[in-house]
Sequence to fold (138 residues):
Amino acid sequence: MKKVVFTIALACIAAMGYSQSLLSTVKSAGKTAATNAVTASASQIVSALDTKLNLNSKQESSSLSAVTSFLNEKSSIASLATTNAAAYATKLAGSKSKLLSNLKTILTVNQYANLLGLKSSAKSTSTDAALSVLSQIL
Fold:
């Protein structure tokens, strides 16, 4: 009888260890998927910026870094959108302000002015695909 109880206890411990390992794998896969989604979105946004502002290669690289950082921040506060809308709006506004500040140092004066001009266009019901993508950051 002791052997049966011991065997069952050992099997339960092994099963718990396996489930923890599986849970870690699933969490890791989820983080990887989220990272890939942010990277893909950032690339689309920078491509749209390039289309509208004619970025050079250094500006593209720097813009990609700034947009990726913004999207990661936005992703980290996404849960607040449903639980605390006011805090979400405040934090999102701060993140957007930081992004625009970073882009201001990356872009030329004319490019930055054109970017600010795109803000109102992106909020309208435009069928322009580039503006649609840019609406994520403007």
In short: Residues 38-134 form one domain.
